[in-house]
Amino acid sequence: QVQLVESGGGSVQSGYSLRLSCAASGRSISNFHLGWFCQVPGKEREFVARVTKSSGDTYYATSVKGRFAVSRVNVKTTVYLQMNSLKPEDTAVYYCNADHISSHSQFWGQGTQVTVSS
User: Fold this and answer.
1) Fewest CB atoms less than 10 Å from the CB: which of 45, 47, 110, 115?
2) Coil, strand or helix: which one is 12?
């Protein structure tokens, strides 16, 4: 089992920044890619960003590329999402995700709300 606990959500005005954190724990957590998804009511959960387990390669949704940055501190097994130049359309519940490198078993955090006002 993997446990993921997010923090750092909140309400900001357009153009401001937020940093989300996700503390990951559990057996073999080092065998998981870690990342972030977001969801708004009535829509499916969407990919935002990911950092791979070993190489630390990062991947981003087109809508956030150049504004968001994902990073992973392996010693603490914490993954961050630095969100800059926030827009109202970034408003969503953001979920931390752990994806096993071979079985692709998925684990999710409880979600943290991000609200951006114009």
Assistant:
1) 110
2) strand
Closest CA to 17 of 77, 59, 80: 80
Give the whole-angstrom CA distance, residue 97 versus residue 32. Answer: 9
C-beta of residue 72 within 8 angstroms of C-beta of residue 58? no
Burial of 117 (0-12, 13-18, 19+ CB in 10 A): exposed
Q: Which helix (H) or strand (E) holds 92?
A: strand 92-100
How far apart CA 115 and CA 63 sit, in angstroms, is 16
**Do the beta carbons of residue 73 and residue 10 sit within 8 Å?**
no
Q: What digits encode the pLDDT tens for the residues 11-59?
A: 999 999 999 999 999 878 888 999 999 999 999 999 999 998 876 899 9
Contact of 100 with 31, CB cutoff 8 Å: yes
pLDDT at 75 over 90: no
